[in-house]
Amino acid sequence: MNIKSLLLGSAAALAAVSGAHAADAIVAAEPEAMEYVRVCDAFGTGYFYIPGTETCLKIGGYVRTEVRFNENSYGANGRGDYDGYSRGYLTFAAKNDTEYGTLSSYINLQADTESDVFLDGAWINIAGFDVGYFYSYWDDGLSGETDSLDSSFGALQNSARYTYDAGSFMASVSVEEVENTYFTDRDSNNDVGVTGKLGATIGGFNVYGLASYDVDVEEAAFRLLATAEIGPGTFGIAGQYATNPNYYYDRAEWTVAAEYAVKATDKLTITPAAQYFGNVRTGSDFNNDLDAWKVGLTAGYQVTEGLRTLATVNYTKFDGDAADALVSDDQWTGFVRLQRDF
Questions:
Q1: What's residue 321's pLDDT?
Q2: Between 291 and 73, whose confidence is greater?
């Protein structure tokens, strides 16, 4: 009876205490809703929505390391003919739909063992217009590593460009800021160039033409480039002419280049190529007594998804009366590269 009374008394006491504190019961707070990153498939693979917006972002790039060979070049700096080189590259692309079509913006950042981080492109695209800092069409060339169809000043400029693309036909015109050349003192403030491009695609045949005018030096450059699917590979040929050295092309008065990119296997592509330069530039003028030719071979192999290798070897020979004045009238160059893309 004593034990029974004790148990009943304890139960009654606990019930009273629970009732007295019922008003002070702790209520767990609701967790805040989390917004997970959503995949955006409207503009291709790799895009995702920036949380809280309808803008899609894609981050990509690559890591590259290579060993370069440049006969009679690196040795002048006491380093021998070989040089190691590595690069990190990041690309950011942001896109969203508007009443004017897709609004796109791009940022490219590059850092390597020869320079600090620098801007390699930043521009806006909408309704066929590109405005900002980007590479011009003169940066395009054949697919191998033998041809030299660009200017020694590069092709990255502040520009405004409009492109009409109908699929099988395209037309484009751009106005570019052309600076940092040594042909004039550039005190005229006419650091402007204009470029026009026309292109067409018919089956496996592609052709385009370029025409550019450097306002400051009042000189022009022209290019015609064509590729065609032939047999197991792609044949490419290009021809260029410059009225005099200018921002767009200054390596020679005229040049012709050709290559044949053979798809040997699903992973291996082999590209033999050759180029001839007529009246090579020495100083600030074309030299009628100096020509050159270049032959080379490039091989690319896709090791696995995201990892590839590229190797090239090229031989350049200078001919003509002015060749005797050169330190070396021939030169071997090349590199072996490993690159991880993401």
A1: 86
A2: 291
Residues 6+ apart with CB under 8 A from 81: 69, 70, 71, 72, 73, 74, 75
What is the C-alpha to C-alpha distance for residues 322 and 342, in angstroms, rounded to an integer? 47
Name the more confident of 80 and 311: 311
Cα–Cα dist 112/160, whole Å: 28
Task: Write the secondary structure of the chain as one string of H (helix), E (strand) and C (coil).
Answer: CHHHHHHHHHHHHHHHHHHHCHHHCCCCCCCCCCCCCCEECCCCCCEEECCCCCCEEEEEEEEEEEEEEECCCHHHHCCCCEEEEEEEEEEEEEEEEECCEEEEEEEEEEEECCEEEEEEEEEEEECCEEEEEEECHHHCCCCCCCCCCCCCCCCEEEEEEEEEECCCEEEEEEEEECCCCCCCCCCCCCCEEEEEEEEEEECCEEEEEEEEEECCCCEEEEEEEEEEEECCEEEEEEEEEECCCCCCCCCEEEEEEEEEEEECCCCEEEEEEEEEEEEEEECCEECCCCEEEEEEEEEEEEEECCEEEEEEEEEEEEECHHHHHCCCCEEEEEEEEEEEEC
Q: What pLDDT was estimated at residue 187?
A: 57
Amino acid at 44: G
CA distances to 61, 233, 257 from 277, rounded to whole Å, are 34, 25, 9
Q: Which residue has the higher pLDDT, 150 or 180?
A: 150
pLDDT-based confidence at residue 205 (cuts at 50, 70, 90):
very high
Q: pLDDT for 106-116, tens place per residue?
A: 999 999 998 89
> Any residues with CB less than 8 A from the CB of 169 and at least 6 apart, and which?
199, 200, 201
